[in-house]
Design brief:
The chain has 158 residues and is of the alpha+beta class. 35% of the residues lie in helices and 27% in strands. Strands 1, 2, 3, 4, 5, 6 and 7 form a seven-stranded antiparallel β-sheet that branches. The longest helix is centred in the C-terminal third of the chain and has 26 residues. The protein is globular.
Length: 158
């Protein structure tokens, strides 16, 4: 099945992301391209990151086709979701320059960051988006497991 795109902007953004990841020496041999959706998975250290190119349908501009590039990583699974962990994640979010922690549908700890795609997507912003997520996920997975239990997502094949 070939990839299909909802808009030219989404397709252009995906092409730019693919070009960057295929030429980046940081992610050599660590990139897997989905054949069914505009998504690229990569592994960096102990973090697995999904880079998705999504349409942005509800935005403040009229008659404009927009897309976003979102890098996200499942950091830990089955960590104790008590007030201590919530306080820790919110406090760490305040310190983050790019991206934020949030919880997934099954209570997993995630970290994600997004940038605007399209013609004006800046390579430095794209690199910062992806590198921020891989660095934070790779750093915090051990820290969260040590302090709040659970497992690193990579150890569970996520």
């Amino acid at each position: 099945m070939a990839l299909s795109f909802a808009s030219k902007t989404q397709e252009l953004s995906y092409t730019k992301v693919v070009d960057y990841l295929q030429t980046s020496t940081l992610f050599e041999n660590a990139v897997q391209f989905s054949t069914t959706q505009p998504r690229i998975n990569l592994t960096y250290g102990s973090a697995r990151v999904a880079v998705e190119v999504l349409t942005w349908d509800v935005h403040p501009w009229e008659e404009r086709e927009l897309a976003i590039v979102r890098a996200s990583s499942c950091v830990t699974v089955n960590s104790h979701l008590g007030p201590e962990l919530m306080d820790f994640l919110l406090t760490e979010n305040q310190r983050m320059r790019f991206g934020a922690f949030h919880l997934g549908p099954q209570g997993e700890v995630l970290f994600a960051h997004s940038v605007l795609g399209g013609e004006g997507m800046d390579l430095l912003e794209l690199q910062t988006c992806i590198l921020s997520v891989v660095t934070i996920a790779d750093t915090y997975d051990d820290l969260i497991v040590e302090q709040f239990g659970g497992q690193r997502a990579l150890d569970l094949g996520m």
